Amino acid sequence: MTMLTADQIKTTAVLGAGTMGHGIAHVLAHSGIEVRLYDISASAVEKGLASVRANLDKGVEKGKVQAADRDAALARLSGSTKLDEAIAGVQCVIEAVPEKLELKQKLFADLGAKLGPEVLLATNTSSLPISRIASVTPRAERVVGMHFFNPVHIMALVEVVVTERSSQAAVATAVALGKRMGKEPIVVKDSPGFASSRLGVLLGLEAIRMVESGVASAEDIDKAMTLGYGHPMGPLKLSDLVGIDVRLSIAEYLEKEFGERFAAPALMREMVQRGELGKKSGKGFYDWKA
Description:
Number of strands: 8
CATH class of the largest domain: Alpha Beta
Order of helices and strands: EHEHHEHEHEHEEHEHHHHH
Strand content: 5-15%
Oligomer: single chain
CATH superfamily of the largest domain: NAD(P)-binding Rossmann-like Domain
Helix content: 40-55%
Number of helices: 12
Radius of gyration: 19 Å
CATH topology of the largest domain: Rossmann fold
CATH architecture of the largest domain: 3-Layer(aba) Sandwich
């Protein structure tokens, strides 16, 4: 069978109910697609579903989402802790589990064995090689990266990451699906850090070095980029939102690929050791407890 088009996608599975997973599920459901949100624990699934409800409620309160559209989106959304149940009969799977290559490969080997070649398999990894994730599947040509940005229901960009084995049909379906979700897709070669992480992490690392050496406060460094360059968010606040531990992991990977310009500052490692991971821990470069 040939790859299904984006218009033929009626049911999807999102694997991983964390920050990125529930955000992807939110946007898929809001765009008219049935979504099954999967995670290994019931509490994670419920937390993810609750976050989608809260974000849709906030959209209604701000007048950006109609109450009827919120209700319809929630009706399309369900949760599961059983992988086989979540992927049964789907036309697309988007994986958003933690950034561990072995974990992603295990999932994709399972998906490749259980789902037909017409089903699009996408990973939301922000830096891991798509080709290595795809290598464990019987049909690597239907695997692409679909790298979304946090918060998914607000950020417009999705990177469609293409390996040497990704078929033109799979890429076209991923791009069209991104547009159907209201996103602006860009197509990027499967290269370490893709476009966004490679540039964004480098900017973030330099901003951390500036804090470390006392050039300016985190707030003023961020203002330099938001007011001086028109960035919607400064690199330090963005690091807090992504997770400083997550950015450290990406930096370590990129340092292996590109050298010392991606070396993590000592301050970054110290913050991770202290548990100052950003918004999710309540403290990073900013105090999020308030």
